[in-house]
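Hi X.,

You mentioned you wanted examples for the new student's onboarding notes, showing what a folding record looks like when two proteins sit in one file. Here is a clean example. The first protein comes first, with its sequence line followed by its structure tokens.
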Amino acid sequence: MTADALRRLADADWSGKGPSWQEPWTVPAAADDRVRLNSPSAPVDAVTPPKRYDERERGQMAKTARERLAKLLGGSGPAGSFSAQLSVPADLLRVEVSGVGPVRLPLRAPLTKKLIAVARPAKFGRGEETLADASVRDTWELTPDQVTLGGTGWTALLDRALEHFRDELGLPRGSRLRAEPHSMLVYGKGQFFLPHQDSEKDDAMVGSLVVSLPSAHTGGELIVEHAGKSVTYRASKEELTLVAFYADCRHQVTAVRTGYRVTLTFNLLADASPTPAEEARPATEPARCLTEHFSTPVTSRYGGRDLPPPNRLVFLLDHEYTQRGLSWDRLKGADTDRAALLRAAAEQAGCEAVLALAEVKETWDAWPSGSDPWDDDYYDEEDDTDGGTGTDPDDYELNELIDDEITLVWWSGPDGTGGEPISLDVQDHEVCAATPNAALTPHSSEYEGYMGNYGNTLDRWYRRAAVVVWPRDLAFTARAEAGSRWALGELRDRIDAGDLAGARDAAQSLAPFWAHLETEAGLLTTALDVAVGLEAAGTAAMLLEPFRVELLAREHAAGLYGEDWTRSIVEGWFGSKHDLYGTGLSEWADDTLPGLCGALRTAGSPQVAQLLAAGTWRWLDSQLQLWTTTRSDVRRPRLETLSSPLVRLLKAADDTLRDEITGTLRGYDDTVLECLVPALRLADTRGPAALEKIAWDCAERLGTIAATPPRDEGDWSIEWTGCGCSLCDRLGTFLGSRTQRTFEWPLAKDGRRHVHSRIDTAELPVRHHTRRQGRPYTLVLTKTDELFTRAANARNKAAADLAWLTAAYGTA
């Protein structure tokens, strides 16, 4: 604390009465000669981020611009601590509790037991849940409405204490802390609170304040941790002990051994207020680093050609923030000074800077602490363990960083206001930090033990804030890569403003990455508007490429016109983006295609309707080719799901395409009946003439099957053609025999496996098993009665389908 602050506290008027819990509170800091300070205010040292193994191998190579920048920011000035303490006279505070009355300080056991009598077991938050579990948190809690605070000088002391904590925690000088009452806690013998992290219950919440009331007890220490450092705070027997710490610090209360520990807890809220500008630290050298970073090609980590210069730099901050609580004037500790310096350097280098939230995953080569990886028993499979999610990260020794992933999930506008969710993977050559992830506490971790050829890995997940910088002339591209919604809106605004050339240039800058972005249905209308407004066919096709044809609906008909610029778009939509089973396209063809094609023809775009119908047929034809040649148990349900899209396609197609469809269908094997007959049952007999052609083709196929003569009783021959190998030739001889039902075949393992696969793939009515006697084992093949029942069932089904077809379509 400064001498000036001490004088101000000593000169304070202690005559006023303190507020109740319901009154507004504010907080700064100071103390007179009776106030003792205990604050671990050593700044976090600037360190370079953990490097991968191959980077460490490079020895004494010159540092990159981003590494030099990380070092500059790490030593950019005095950093605040993550926690701080004040000890003040207890007679400055008066406490009164409903149902108990005045609470005399220091506390004695009889009075503390009365507090417990009006308290309830404390709960804790886990994610979105509020839980009560004495194995995690065992303490008594009183709510703010049960407690009233007052006392001579308490208000003035609290104001000055909060000012002190603001400075000690490194919050901006222009900010103002407020203390919002949260609870009164009573810990008895054996009670504790396991390591945890406070949730930020308000947009402005930055930390917590714990006021320990004086009492005689042992144990019950408050331990606060952050960035690999830990501080232990013990309460006084005679004085009030105030401890403030950031909300993202993990902390715990150890078990009370004797006596009682009683505390008042507050949420610390930071309000920004305008203050005279402080003298800025020189940003010249950081600005040079930014300029070099954005102008230097990147050397691939694994060698080879150089990559283009990066278009962004992501500097990871030390503390965690919520979306609502992240702003330039509410940063914590060392983040405040580093972000201010980086923002000034960005301005000097002609760049923009935004605040962002990042999800970080690291995978380390690791092993449990205390184990010996060179011990032969270490790799015994019986000893393999999986630490599971939530593993204590301190239980493992880290060896080498194997991989890391950084994804930006949210960022603000350049002015720090607004914000949007994003999903942007960041490359390692775009990232730097003053504090490595390994020095922070992960929010979760998972260990994979040795699994024979992989394992001994520890995955750690972190949530960090970041300052993201990009050159001002690349601002559109840098922001657009994080998501399509903002980019399309910006392009439309430029078109509406008459800046067509600027819109075209900006749109073209998206080409390197646009096709890989995730899109959503609600953006297709905007994308079509922009594509039309650009009046550039190639650029329009590029913008629409990420969208899937399943997103098209009738309301989009007006935005699709002309064959020239839509042909490549439609062909791309029916390209390789669709999964093997085509579920989305099947539903779209069934529900949307006919109405969309009708709307396109009404809007004067029949060419686009033809393109969409033709693309749908190419997809459907490929599906039929795939599923008509597979096993019956897979084939039948797949072909039946294609029956309704086929009917809807015939309704949407023009006569030329219908003729093409019916001609192609006639070339399929009889298995196509498993799609065509259900399609005819679904269709309206007054539909397109193509249905009648399909019906006549099906009737011919069914008649042939139904007229197949029954197999002779003693004929056990099976027609089959193998792959041409000697094993298949021998199997074919057995199958072709009219009289031989069983074949015992001494055969080695690989040969048995080959024969098994051929029988199963062809769905032959042959049972096979291995008699494991002698060498080689004997493969026993037996023809089954299904040889007769399968053919009979096929004839009966064909006859029944033919009878229905004759009645419905008059195909007799």
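Then the second protein repeats the pattern, sequence line and then tokens:
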Amino acid sequence: MPGENLTRDEARERAALLSVDGYEVSLDLRTAADATGATGATGATGGEGGGAAEGPRTFRSVTTVRFRCTEPGASSFADLIAPAVTAVSLNGRDLDPGEVFDGSRLLLEDLAADNELIVDAQCAYSRTGEGMHRFVDPEDGEVYLYTQYEPADARRVFANFEQPDLKAPYRFEVRAPEGWTVWSNGVGELADGVWRFAETKPISTYITCVVAGPYHCVTDTYERELPDGTRLEIPLGAMCRKALAPHFDADDVFLVTKQGLDFFHDHVDYPYPFGKYDQAFVPEYNLGAMENPGLVTFREEFIFRGKVTQASYEGRANVVLHEMAHMWFGDLVTMEWWDDLWLKESFADFMGAFSLVGATRFTDGWITFANRRKAWAYRADQLPSTHPVTADIRDLQDAKLNFDGITYAKGASVLKQLVAYVGQDAFLEGARRYFKRHAYGNTRLGDLLSVLEETSGRDMTAWSRAWLQTAGVNSLTPQVLLGADGRVEELAVVQEAVESHPELRPHRVAVGLYRRTSGGALERYARAEADVDGPRTVVAELAGAEAPELVLVNDDDLTYCKIRFDETSLATLREHLGALTDPLARALCWSALWNLTRDALLPAREFVDLVLRFGGRESDIGVLQMLHAWAESALVHYAAPAWRETGGLLLAEGARRELEAAEPGSEQQLAWARFFARSAAAPGDFQLLQELLSGTVTVEGLDVDQELRWVFLEPLAAHGFADEKALAEELVRDDTASGKRHQVRCLAARPSAEVKARGWARVVESEELSNALVEATIAGFAQPSQRELLAPYADKYFAVIERVWEERSIQIAMHVVRGLFPELLDSPGTLDATDAWLAAHEDAPPALRRLVLEARDDLARALRGQACDAAAG
């Protein structure tokens, strides 16, 4: 649509011309619950949330914007994506909607110094999770609404100036069906059938929010005495669909919320500025969560319907605290444009882990960070699309794709390194000054660096250039020279970088030396911190130490790098990884071994063997679940095709053995049960899954609850042991929104050409499915055991992706382009087809090309890994 993809240059030009004094937004959402789909003023009808022939289901949106212009007589534009505009008034002058509205922008000519714009529009309910999403619960027929805007979908709900640096206060009023409750950023009251909300502080468009429907709501209050003696009271709310209420552990959500609020008040010295603190768990959510001030939204999968491990509770707590960090890093102080997205996401990712460890029961949060978050960053930083933490964001499509492992996890890792570099006290004092200096404003990189220079006394320019303004990940490898006495004569750290990103960075690292004790435990006996800078750094403090069996560079995970091993250390891990007693050190070693596998330096079969030999001894449940995912990926992507069947049987046999050996009722037992289901390969494996489902066989302590039943059913469906009738019967058992998603995924997983054709058509050629069901269908479609069935879709993929990108919303297009890439057809022919598409589509949208380039890189990496594994065979 013309003008929908706002550019940075356009945003800068508009920000130089305009400033916004305030918005008044009136939404009439009564059509949401209308079973006929009537849309009020337009008279059109539509299917559930859109896509029917008669047109999308819509709601009335009336926006009044008051803004100033520095050049009276100039022209500009407002943003709005809507099926229809009923009326437009500028400074009392009625404008012809047909002349000023092109479907995404409203032309504003002959502006005055002070302006008032009124736009009366029919906006569309969404089924893609963008804008005003409408969901009908299949369990009870109730309708639920929520908004999601980042980076630029507020314009799907009300007319505005959709860029982060045109902040303003907002007043919302909402008409909703009788019996509903409505929430927004401010405190609301219902009077005469209208919900009216208190005016917000100046905030950006993308963090305004509305949640409406018959949600189940639990309330509480946070109280704290401030340093000036005043009492701070923050009303707390937690909401979910009524059908999920029996599973909703709101008490635990409130516990983490209060612990987080205590932590941030202790450390940032700026009281929470947005009044209330509601948290809504909503259906069919595209993200993990969103930091709307006063009304944070989360994906409802954080409400657990069955038994999960503590890693799941830790993950939820981390997200709660990540979003809370945004109240200061992102909401109070916001980046000027998406180039500096890291100013909010990197900080929130770091502060989420920092507060998790410092304030909650999840004191091992840095292990999860080292093992899981950094894995995301390492992958992203080795893709052809890698970019500096401070990125070059040309437009909104760039911005949409930049919510990636660089901006989040690498940025957070860099901040962890920064804390080691300047000291925790200087870092936190810098943050405090930053908030007070820029409250309710917008900032760039230099604004943060200047306060850190003040508080640390260090020159931040060189650090920023090395860590924030260059891309790529360094590798650190130990070199050990032993003297004639058998002790360390010299220990050095060698730093390397790839040719495409040659920057060698300064690293503050700890180097740990490990040996086995008389009892067989592998433990650290010496440690030294050093500043690694340049290609080779000698760690003088470790000279004279006893000869190590394992040298762990970046012990304690102070910096961001890929750890390598010398030959002695690698040999020790091959034989004694399970004897390493420190859980963080063990997690770092596992991460390093996985990076070696992805880099085709360690055969995939060897990594699988390590997991099978030592995974059962892993005490950290989050690390264990990550090992399961990596072992599965090693087999599917990096193992030589000729060894896959053998490797699959070994993996399933090992998973079953560990399941039977695990302590009854333990988290490890549950994790191994899930992994056994995913790795099932032999007829006996599928027979056991069927028997566990029917109850004819039980495993002591293993509760096969509804969620675990679906986990067992997917591999049965994928291998032809559960047909459409069996999946329909399971949906009767679990006739819920979650059950429907599971069933759709399992249906698409069945080994039939007809099934694949139907799944492809429903996702690619139709808009009948919501975002959640598109995602579920894609997840079921591509099964590693069905490569032959998937072969016809490689050519089809390259034939349709440009059209999909043009015609579908960016969220759905991203699902299709990423999820349907023929990565399982891992042959040089698929690589050639990808290269041919890229060569023939140099003018395709850059964001689309980026997704294809990333998929191509993963495929090429897989082929290199397969060659490495084949050579080992």
